[in-house]
């Protein structure tokens, strides 16, 4: 069982606009994003995604839910698979059970994550400030044709030459978090005695690497002149894993949706330069070969991925590695292509020399994956000889076995069969290729439910929409819920306890996901909240406190009406009467004070 605390943390980290945007074309519409509902046929958009609530809702068919719910319904994943899928994209590891990680250890892990994130943010701000006064760095960027506007958009900065410049940012320069974040290096003498700490990045243009939430998780630093390494990346840290992250993806998300494809380049400067030259849909791997996880991440953003490589030997080698990374992720509704530029050009120089339209034409004419694969296995083999054809089949075997049993694989098999004078059936038998067995799963239909009414359910609505307000209800407030009756009071108290268990940072998405797992009791209420505009938290907080006071007044009034038939002595009645009237007067004063604040 996955701990609820992990689900809450996960839903606080992922961005539902990103999750849904991988599958649905979304456009900004006021505070929300709009698109055509993927769960029923419609011609005008009634599907909304709220970045504030981290929730989606369709006004047409009633479908609604969190990022987890969307993956479950759209792709047919199970709950655990959906959680793992989302967690992988934000660098989280799903615990298998509550007892695997002690609460104290989980709290320590969260505290470490916050400390590292804070350190990276402060360092990024420092580097950005340093760039404004670094004439040599500004001159270099201008020489590369970059403007201050694009540098600001990507948060670029400059690491000065000093060995410990970050002391100006971090008074506690010896803090462990600086090493764990990869900002500094500890060098220990050979005898293990003295330890010297110094900044990892010095005299470099700094490229902050952001995750999908926009948080800085790492840096890439480029030397201004000659020097090695030309690019220096942050090391692997609890926040940053190179095989999972792509430079520029956070900045390019909307441009990728608008363009309908993502362009994968080989470096930071390519991404920044292309964004300035009219191709903001570009991203880059982080000094490492493209991984299958990278491809999976990109295909969730768009249906079309285009890799751009230099036409030299190194570029061809990188393209082959990218091809191998792509094969496990290939599907019939996605397109992957490969673009090879002339050997003397990278994307930046090509666009500057030949222009926007010429590069756009290169993109449009990029080589499909199927064609590139067949060209790779053909290689320099002499296909006029049995040995050459056999070698081509040998080279193709592992590539085709890495692919799922899709229609595209069948097309490639047919192409290979034609090229090697074989039949598709012979190749499938020879390569032991599995036959297609997967069946697409459809989202279950949604059913409407009666809308909740009454003061009790209005309180439920407020608490579900704003879980932190559960902490505003003390024991006296919980006791006053008895006025609604035993079952209602129990339901309210259980809801408050659940909301408090989420912690002070629990949001609507995490709360609704938990309630959905428990049953369908709150489904219609969640749908109603999802369909409404975001409510003002301060106003809602005032309403809730007023509602609780009104319930207390009503309960006191009922007790007062029943006081003389309660069986108490006249003295006891007199004492209780004065207590009730005093409490009523105090509550009326508090209600009046609330009214003046509204």
TrEMBL record:
Name of the top EC class for this enzyme: transferase
Keyword Oxidoreductase set for record: no
Cofactor: Zn(2+)
Pfam families xref list: DnaB_bind (PF10410), DNAG_N (PF08275), Toprim_2 (PF13155), Zn_ribbon_DnaG (PF01807)
One Gene Ontology molecular-function label: DNA binding
Toprim domain residues: 260-342
Residue stretches in coiled coil: none
Superkingdom assignment: Bacteria
GO terms under biological process: DNA replication, synthesis of primer
EC identifiers of the protein: 2.7.7.101
Record-linked InterPro entries: DNA_primase_core_N_sf (IPR037068), DNA_primase_DnaB-bd (IPR019475), DNA_primase_DnaG (IPR006295), DNA_primase_Znf_CHC2 (IPR036977), DnaG_bac (IPR030846), DNAG_N (IPR013264), DnaG_primase (IPR050219), TOPRIM_DnaG_bac (IPR034151)
Description of how the protein assembles with itself and partners: Monomer. Interacts with DnaB.
NCBIfam families: dnaG
Record-given protein name: DNA primase
